[in-house]
Amino acid sequence: MNLRAYLQFLVNAPTLEDLWSAHTARMAEYGFDRLLYGFTRARTQTSLGDPDDFIILSNHSPEYVEGFVHGGLYAHAPMLRWALENDGAGSWRQLAQRFNNHSLSPGELKVIEFNLRMKVTSGYTISFRSVSARSKGAISLAGRAGMTQDHVDAIWEEHGRDIHLMNNIAHLKILSLPYSPPNRMLTRRQREALEWVGDGKTTQDIAILMGLTAATVEKHLRLARESLSVETTAQAVLKAALHNQMFVLDA
C-alpha cells in the first residue's frame, strides 16, 4: 500500500482497533515494531491527570506495559519529559548524550535500566502539537531488538518525513474515534440517558422517551457517573463526549 492509499485508509478507519492494527504493521515495515501511544486531556502544571483517563495504545508486551504504564515509570521517562516540552520528532540519541553528561535523574536512570532489560534501546518519539494547554499526545516508536540508534537515525533520515506524517494523521484520527478507558465502559442504556441529558431533556422527559420510570433513569445516570468516576451528571456528559462515547455511529 503506497503512502496515499495508507493515509486514505487512516482517515476512513472505522474503529480504533482497525486503525491500531494497521498502523503497528505499517510502522514495523520501517523497523519500528513496538509502539506506545498516549494522550491526555487533563494535563496541569504538576500532573498529566488521572492515568485511568489516558488514551493508551500499545503493542509492547504485557510485561512492558505493566511496568512502564501501570507501574508509573512513564512519569520519569526522559523522552516523555522531552515530549511535554517540545513538538515534533526526537531521536533517542539524546538519551546517550545525557547519560554521558551525567544529567539523568535517578528516576530517569531507572527508566533507562527498565528499557534495557526489555530490549527497548533505540527509536524515536513524536510529540504532537496541542490545541489546548490541558491536552498532550505523543507516540514512541521503538526499533527492533538489536537495532542501533545509528541504524534508526539512518531510517529516519530517509523516511522520517513520511513516518512523521503518517503518525500525525493516525493521532488526529484516534481523537475522533470512540474510546473506552478500562473499567469505564458505558452500557447502551447509560449512554442513551446521557445523550438525552446532553440534548437538554429532564429526567421526566427521558423516562417517557426511553419508556422507563424516572427512578430507572436516575439509576442509569448514577451508574454512568460511577463508571466515569465523576460526581455530577454534567461532568459525565462532558467526559463521555470527550471520549467520543456519545451519539456513536455503528462502524
What is shown here, in short?
The protein is α+β, with helices and mostly antiparallel strands and 251 residues long. The chain has eleven helices and five strands, in the order ααββααβααββααααα.
Task: Just name the CATH architecture of the largest domain.
Answer: 2-Layer Sandwich
Q: Tell me, what is the CATH class of the largest domain?
A: Alpha Beta
What is the arithmetic mean of pLDDT? Answer: 91
What is the percentage of strand-forming residues? 5-15%
Catalogue the unreliable spans. Answer: none
Annotation, overall tally of beta strands: 5
Structural class: alpha+beta
Oligomer: single chain
H/E element string? HHEEHHEHHEEHHHHH
> What's the name of the CATH homologous superfamily of the largest domain?
Transcription factor LuxR-like, autoinducer-binding domain
Rg, alpha carbons: 21 Å
Q: Mind summarizing the main beta sheet?
A: 5 strands, antiparallel
- Number of individual domains: 2
Shape assignment: elongated
Q: Could you please say which CATH topology of the largest domain applies here?
A: Beta-Lactamase
Strand order in the largest sheet: 2-1-5-4-3
Give the N-to-C terminal Cα separation: 23 Å
* Individual helix count: 11
Helicity range of the residues?
A: 40-55%
